[in-house]
Fold:
Amino acid sequence: MSRATADALASSEITVSTERGALTLPVEVADLPDGVVWVPGNSPGSRVRATLGVGHGAVVSIAAGGER
Structure:
């Protein structure tokens, strides 16, 4: 996520969620547009399609770690 998005959430972890499920992940700042997150599609502890039911370009909710 961008520095501005990370600063707005003020947390070292974020929760990315959809109506289907949620993943809580560590924050990493990258060169991305504000309000955008990038999550690896399938890594240990993070199976985006299986958990959230979404793929590339999907709209998700983000909140400070553990919040939904």
